Amino acid sequence: MKGVILHGGSGTRLRPITHTEVKQLLPVAGKPVSEYALEDMIEIGIREINIIVGSVGADAVTGYYGDGSKWGVSITYTHQPKPLGIAHAVGLTEDFVAGDTFVVYLGDNLLNGGIGKLSDAFGEGRFDALVALCRVNRPQSYGVAELEEGRIVRLVEKPKQPKSNLALVGVYFFRPDIFDVIRTLKPSARGELEITEAIQKLIEEGRNVGYQEIKGWWKDTGTTEEILDANRLVLDEIERQIDGKVASETGIIGRVRVMSGASVDAQSVIKGPCHIGSGTEITHSVIGPNTSIGNNCRISGVEIEDSIIMDGCIIEGNREMRLYESIIGTSCKISKNSGIKRASKMIVGRDSDIAV
Question: Which residues form a coiled coil (predicted)?
């Protein structure tokens, strides 16, 4: 089996952060969102992976993942020049798949528990395609599966009046026959080749299309709220790990990761769950809970909770700044220039310099 990770899209719902950052590379608990997809594939034994990149951020993606040797896999890349739909993107990988079975994983999706059960179900059921489903509160925002007698009979993309609350999760298992179907598709009303239509054609042809319902959590990290919620959920599963320098163990509360080369002074408190990246210095601050601090940051005199701080940031609060539910982009500088203590919620793009 081979793996395909979709890394396209401009992330319009995540602006302003995606004006300067690639949405699938936004960090959750210290790692890019799409790295969890990669790890899920590796866990089920996949060693050949193709990442589909678009016109936005391709260099950042290839720069981060390289040839895959860091993870012990082979990674190649396919360029989708325009956002013409998931099915179009999948169709571009036919030469890479080369007649094998394969899994398609949307790079901005996170699944609790990995994809092992999905892979097992796909193989044991001898399905032509298998989709993952999850019960959601607002199914009209997703592709929705309609079932009859335990079988999928219809897939509808963002129905106005959904007949079920079973949303399509961004993980699909296929046999190579799907490429023949994709070649017959016409663009939808929004100008895209829809993967839901491709799977629907398989159903109408009487092919064996299965499903597996996700029992744990699933996140489509398409908004700042969803990214922050995903960060909370992943952090909630971490174990305590102190590899950096901590001046006072009493200041480390709960499940906290302090990575190698990081330091926390005696005047700081870190409340878990929390991740502190390598090379980061924390002084006179209260960090957490539900907070991820990137690598090589300098944090001083500030309270931060329920937030994501990306690599290389400098935040100097003079003990009068509190950040909450914030995402601070790479290499930003945030400083305090007044004597009034206030709480701030910020979504800030890369290389910004802000005084509050």
Answer: none
**Positive or negative CA dihedral for 159, 163, 167, 168?**
negative
Q: What is the pLDDT of residue 119?
A: 96
327 forms beta bridges with: 308, 347
Report domain extents, the chain. 2-222, 241-355
Angle at the Cα of 144 from the Cα atoms of 168 and 8, rounded to 5 degrees: 45
Give dist(CA 57, CA 199) in Å, integer.
29
Average pLDDT (39-47) is 97
How far apart CA 277 and CA 259 sit, in angstroms, is 5
E-strand stretches of 84-201? 102-106, 109-111, 129-135, 143-148, 151-157, 166-174
Q: Please write the tens of the pLDDT for every residue from 108-157.
A: 999 998 999 999 999 988 899 999 999 988 888 888 999 988 889 999 88
pTM greater than 0.85: yes
Contact 303, 40 (CB under 8 A): no
**Res. 289: pLDDT tops 90:** yes
What superfamily in CATH does domain 241-355 come from? Answer: Hexapeptide repeat proteins (2.160.10.10)
Question: Helix, strand or coil for residue 198?
Answer: helix
Token pair, residue 245, equals 């320098």
- DSSP structure string for 286-318: EE-SSEEE-TT-EEEEEEEES-EE-TT-EEEEE
Confidence (pLDDT) at 340: 57
d(C-alpha 37, C-alpha 104), whole Å: 10
What gap in Å lies between CA 8 and CA 320, rounded to an integer?
40
In whole numbers, what is the pLDDT of the chain averaged over residues?
Answer: 91
Question: Do residues 137 and 204 make contact, with C-beta atoms less than 8 angstroms apart?
Answer: no
2.10.109.10, 3.40.50.620, 3.90.550.10, 3.20.20.70: CATH of 2-222: 3.90.550.10
Q: Quick one: which H or E segment has residue 119?
A: helix 116-125
pLDDT (tens digit per residue) in 183-235: 999 998 888 899 999 999 999 999 999 999 998 899 988 888 999 999 999 99
- On whether the CB atoms of residues 192 and 84 are closer than 8 A, the answer is yes
